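Database export, one record per block. Field names are fixed; values are copied verbatim from the stored entry.
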Amino acid sequence: MEYNSEEEFLRNYDSSCFEKLSVTSDVLIFSVADGVQENYRKLNEKHFAILLVKRYDYPFKDKWCLPGGFIRIDETTSSAAKRVLKDETNLEDIYLEQLYTFDEVNRDPRMRIISTSYMALVDKNKLHNKLSDNASWFNMNVIESDESINIVFDNGNESFSVVVGKTLREFTTDRYEYSVIKNDSLAFDHPIVIASGISRLKNKLEYTDIVFNMMPEYFTLGELQQVYEVILGKELLDPAFRRIIASKVEKTNKVKTGGGHRPSVLFKYKSNNKKKL
């Protein structure tokens, strides 16, 4: 059929000839938090954590998952991500950046669903909103090899683990393809989404200042190094670490004392770097 104008084409356009799909937004909120201090002469042990919510409905009833939900017809993916984060966890006013789009054909048993995921690194001690009853912070112990990522989740009351396989897809960019090897407690393909987020976060430590989103205004270099190490999952040599952060921080005239520690000089994030967060 031929049309004389775009208006005529749109009046006669039949969208029913296309198969339908749905789109969701999922949100990864990472944090690094202090653990129990067992030795007052040492820095508090820090834990890498993620915010999860428990599903009340099928599919995957009573499983844990990332905060997420369907995108409404009048929403963008980013506005939907902020809405579902507020609805499911009661958190708001958090800067989110897009991670990836996950589009495996069978990723959801209900229908064909594509998910655009967002992520943030925050200081959970600065979050003033009370979490929803079905939301919980889980500490993560991440052990990564060339072939897999093993993640143990623990919120103090419940503990479980997942194993995600890795296959190098692009040699020039170190991009991996992930697959679920073991998973009994997370819904959907969220082990893969979380593994992807951890990988992206590690990479961002190298070329952005995202880590300072969850640091206090003043901190010691030892505290900052702990945060880098817990996210990267490895110890850093002091000289190498100092080179990494040399252009990112500035020394202050403040000193941290007490707690059995020797006085330590406090640093702060360089104000002229704020555009890089």
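Remark 1: The domain at 22-207 is CATH 3.90.79.10 (Nucleoside Triphosphate Pyrophosphohydrolase).
Remark 2: Residues 96 and 210 are 11 Å apart (CA to CA).
End of record.
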